[in-house]
Amino acid sequence: MKTGTKVFLGIVGGVLAAVLLLWAIVPTLPVYLLIKHKIDPEILNKTLIAAPYTDLEIPSDYQRISERGLSISLPADMKPKETESKSLRAYRSDAGWAIIFINHDDDPEGFQFIGGDGLSQKDYDRFVSAIKREKPVTNYDMYNLILNLTPKDIKLTKHGSWRPILQMMNSKEQLWTSMGREGYPLETAHGIGYYTLYGESNGTRKDYRILVELYDKEDKNRCASAIISAGTLEDAVRIANSADFERDYQPEDKDE
Asked: What confidence tier does 22 reach under pLDDT thresholds 50, 70, 90?
């Protein structure tokens, strides 16, 4: 074998050995680099941020109503309206403001993150062992984790965790894409959750829309949510800030 060939093979062998050593020390590095390349950069490091307009007061003429487990204050002229879907409850005003309450009665436990469409138990355990966050045990915990998960939360020294990490980062991208461009934590007397800027005024739409999602503080698998639309962002946030989880709500009491 020629000396040049020997030198070349030696270099290749040295590089390969270095790569294998690096992979042995930081096995999660490849997926770390992959998600930074694959996930939308506007979403990759997105987290819930401090809420705007926290000092907005509820006008005295607002009415307090409860639907689908969510208690909220609405302008007095917002009245119940028929919807095409029996799973939704809607209130609308003459000015075009609206709120649509989402039905969670048929799925009280929410999305199952283990089994079904979720991770296997093995992959779930690998995932939680590979992140620098507390293990989620409820639906609220998991959604809150996914919304706030960033590359800096990933431990680079855990073997066998690249697949669930990639799946969870894909879930984050899908969740933020479907929920809006900004999100804010929301904690009330009986609930904990968040609201997101679901849509905003532009050339074709005249209103701002906010998605509110609250979980029962005593049972964080129980969820109540609604989509609010109003003429200004301040008014939409004002309504969102008034939301609370209605702990006494029982689906069987509200069935028609």
From this structure: very low
